[in-house]
Amino acid sequence: MSKFSEQELIRRKKREELKQLGINAYPAELFPVDFYSNDLPLHYEEGKKVVIAGRIMSRRIQGKASFAELQDSQGKFQIYFNRDEICPSEDKSLYNVVYKKLLDIGDIIGIEGTLFTTMVGEQTVKVTLFTLLNKSLRPLPLPKTDTEGNVYDEFNDAELRYRQRYVDLIVNPQVKNTFIQRSKITTTIRNFFANKGYLEVETPILQPIPGGAAARPFVTHHNALNIPLYLRIANELYLKRLIIGGFEGVFEFAKDFRNEGMDRTHNPEFTVMELYVAYKDYFWMMETTENLLEQIALDLNQKTMLQVGEYKIDFKAPYPRVPILEAIQTHTGIDVSNMLEYELRKTASDMGLEVDESMGEGKLIDKIFGEKCEHHYIQPTFIIDYPKSMSPLTKEHRTNSKLTERFELMVNGKELANAYSELNDPIDQKERFETQLALSEKGDDEAMFIDHDFIRALEYGMPPTSGIGIGIDRLVMLMTNNSSIQEVLFFPQMKPEQQALALNAEEKSVMDSIKESDSKELLAIKSAAGLSNKKWDASIKGLTLKKLVKVVKNEKGLFIDMLN
Question: How far is residue 86 CA from its own chain's centroid?
Fold first, then answer.
């Protein structure tokens, strides 16, 4: 049996027929496009000669004339084919054979033609010459509309869309706007900091020590150096080295990697913008951050109030400042400010939170705030003044030695940014690293490594500095009103595709019976399948070998569990 569908086989045959006619379905030559779909309303002139290119998205063939829809990078054109215009000589095969019979929806063609307006007032390109630029071998999953305007067969399955983003962008062109908006956001950020004189830089992605955050890293091995290397979890410590080296302000759009779970707001590979500026503190950074977000909202939408899910969120500065311990007391009624580690663990446990012995004071407070408080902060709010145990890279608070000068920006119930007055005391920093090492030895696989070179760098002296990390993916989610991180990543991480297993008729019958069974009791499923003992045994064995089911025995009897 062929691995290709009937339509795919037909298209491959057409490719060969084109080849026999001397037509290259994949020409190498430049095609001199000089007009785009978005030029139509702006630069329309009756009779103007244009050269366009794009993908055929629909066709209406009416004998010697045909209307088609062409999609380019900017939108869609209507194009008009007339057999006698295209083939002025006696040989009409370019239209009758090539266009009508050998081209398909999805093929990419180049057009030379003139602009005109149809009888119904639609701006159209009249084709004088067309060139095949690419023969599509797979049919597009295009939606269909019935006579009553109902739409069917839309390409809207999330998993398929993320796996085949190239198809998603073709058949759901509105998706492209999210990524255009993403580009505008990063451009605004770049311009905002460049105008302040700060330098965009690049730092290592492969690092000998995964520093700058508490997270589980990806690890690999460098053969030549015979050492482990880690995909960076943050770029913080390298950017601080640049501040030590004499730059006043540096920022980087960093690809970071964390070997952790995946959900609607987490992808193992993500983008963070980190900024560090000398001679500033976290108060200055709060003002800078709220002004930046206000500017992004204005550049994207010309207003600061945005619809995000069910909420209207206003990004106009300034934003409230709420101490984290005060937030916990407000939303739980419990004062945790003077609790020891064992008291915090019991408190968290009493709240119904999952905790274990490896979790130190910082993680416990973070757990309580994350589960009991975070979701309350819909409007942009700075949560400030975190306990020292939660912030190993942060400067001690100027008025309370138990706290640090740190803030997290909460929007729509999620953390969007994390910022500090940066710790620049090398002795204090070393002690905090050693505390993290103790947590690691207790079993905390997210505790920080000790970066001895960074300590050495601090010993040369780092000026007072404020730094921030902003999650770009979450920022784009907010600004484009998307609830899933997969919607703002071109190619989100996915589980491996499951290859469909070939089942015979008996195996299909058994699988259907299992799916329809409430109890999954073996004898009931066997009866429902209606197979002979021999066929039943063969079917169960086949499904077991294909790892689709397993037979389990308990005190109540034999049952069948589905594995996929």
Answer: 45
Nearest Cα neighbor of 124 from 229, 192, 47 is: 47
Domain 177-204+233-319+413-433+445-488 has CATH 1.10.260.40: no
Residue 255 CB neighbours (<10 A): 13
Q: Are 137 and 143 in contact (CB under 8 A)?
A: no
Residue 488 has pLDDT above 70, yes or no: yes
Contacts of 522 by beta carbon, 8 Å cutoff, 6+ apart: 551, 557, 558, 559, 560
* Mean pLDDT within 405-424: 96
CATH 1.10.10 domain span(s) along the chain: 505-562
pLDDT in tens, 39-87: 999 999 999 999 999 999 999 999 999 999 999 999 999 999 999 999 9
The CATH fold assigned to 6-140 is: OB fold (Dihydrolipoamide Acetyltransferase, E2P) (2.40.50)
Cα diameter, the chain: 95
Question: Cis link prior to 208 (omega < 30° from 0)?
Answer: no
Residue ranges matching CATH 3.30.930.10 in the chain: 177-204+233-319+413-433+445-488
Alpha carbon 197 to chain centroid, angstroms:
30
pLDDT of residue 1: 43
The pLDDT of residue 408 is above 70: yes
- Radius of gyration for the chain, computed over Cα atoms and rounded to the nearest angstrom: 31
Its CATH architecture, for the domain 505-562, is Orthogonal Bundle (1.10)
Residue 563 banded pLDDT, cuts 50, 70, 90: confident
- Calpha distance 380→409 (Å, rounded): 7
How does pLDDT run across 222-269, given as a tens digit for each residue? 999 999 999 999 999 999 999 999 999 999 999 999 999 888 889 999
Q: Enumerate the CATH 2.40.50.140 domain ranges in the chain, comma separated.
A: 6-140
Q: Quote the pTM value.
A: 0.84
Crossing angle for the helix pair 361-372 and 341-350, to the nearest 10 degrees: 30
